[in-house]
Structure formats: structure tokens, C-alpha cells
Write a structure and sequence with these properties.
Layout: H1 18-25, H2 33-38, H3 42-57, H4 63-76, H5 80-92, H6 97-105, H7 114-129, H8 134-141, H9 146-169
Helix pairs in contact: 4-5, 4-7, 4-9, 7-8, 7-9
Length: about 180
């Protein structure tokens, strides 16, 4: 759950240093409050954004699968900002409004395929116990190779971290 006002407000254009402006110029990031907030710590931002960029654009997970676990993680963490942003991204990679509504309900929705159910269960288990159960691991391993399984775990971990930061810093959804 986000705070009603930012605890750490996003930087305005007139507050940006040359270094921060340069960091935000990569990929049209300056329009989003998450980046305008996190760039207040340029060293951390630089290292975190490289990892995040890998997960979003180079991960071995298919984009639809990636967005399923990101949305489930954001929902489990109560991150309104994360869910809002990745709902938009999810729609661009093939998730329907029904899929997105079902992600919030979790793996028990009967219409999920076995592989989608395993992805959602992995997100739920990592959130609850910080470990994927043997049963879920076996279900995932039927479809995913070792590299994909590692990307899955790190994606869920990354978006748990991001959700904690967004919620704690009070990052607000951008106003149109």
C-alpha cells in the first residue's frame, strides 16, 4: 500500500544534476516517478537499473510469463504503483483484462494453464516463505530450463525489492 504523499518526492527538472539528467535520458525514463525518485541516489540507481533492465529486456522468460509474476508480486506486496505500471506493460505482451484480474486472485483460478499456475504459485511461495517448494519446482522444471528458473526467481525477488522501495518511499502513480 502506498503512502498518500511521497516520503521522498521525485526530482523536478530544475533539481536534476547533470549526472541525474544523463541517467534519466536513457530510455525516456524521466517521465516516471519511480526513476525520478530513485535517481536521487545515482550510484544505487545506476547499479539497480542495470539489473532491472536485464530482467525487462534480456531475461530468458517470455515477456508474458515475466509480467504474470511481476503483477502477482506487485499485488502480493500491495504495491499500487507496480501493479499500475505493469498492468500497462502486461497488456502490450498479451495479457487480457481477464488475465490481469485473475492474477490478483492467484493460482487457484481454474482457467490457468498448468505452467501459468506454477508461475503464480512460485510467486506466492517466494512471497510467503522465501522458497519455492519441491512440488512447484518440479512443475516449473517440466517447462523451464535452469536459466529460466533462475531468471524467474530473480524477477520475483527484484520486484519484491522494488515494491518495498515504492511503498516505503511513497512513490505516487503519475497524474495524466
Amino acid at each position: 500500500m502506498s503512502t498518500p504523499t511521497p516520503r521522498v518526492p521525485p526530482l523536478r527538472d530544475d533539481e536534476l544534476t547533470a549526472e541525474q539528467r544523463d541517467l534519466l535520458s536513457r530510455g525516456n525514463l524521466a517521465r516516471l516517478n519511480i526513476f525520478r525518485t530513485l535517481v536521487r541516489h545515482p550510484d544505487l540507481y545506476r547499479r539497480w537499473s542495470a539489473f532491472g533492465a536485464y530482467l525487462l529486456s534480456q531475461s530468458s522468460l517470455a515477456p508474458r510469463e515475466r509480467e504474470i509474476v511481476i503483477l502477482r508480486t506487485g499485488h502480493l506486496c500491495g504495491s499500487e504503483y507496480e501493479v499500475f505500471q505493469h498492468t500497462q506493460i502486461g497488456k502490450t505482451v498479451g495479457l487480457s483484462d481477464t488475465d490481469i484480474a485473475h492474477i490478483k486472485l492467484g493460482p487457484s483460478v481454474p482457467s490457468w494453464s498448468a505452467s501459468d499456475r506454477a508461475l503464480l504459485t512460485a510467486a506466492d511461495e517466494l512471497h510467503a516463505t522465501q522458497r519455492v517448494s519441491d512440488e512447484t519446482w518440479r512443475a516449473l522444471a517440466e517447462r523451464y530450463d535452469t536459466k529460466q528458473l533462475m531468471d524467474l526467481i530473480f524477477t520475483i525477488g527484484q520486484y519484491t525489492l522494488v515494491s518495498m522501495a515504492l511503498n516505503s518511499l511513497g512513490v505516487q502513480i503519475e497524474q495524466p
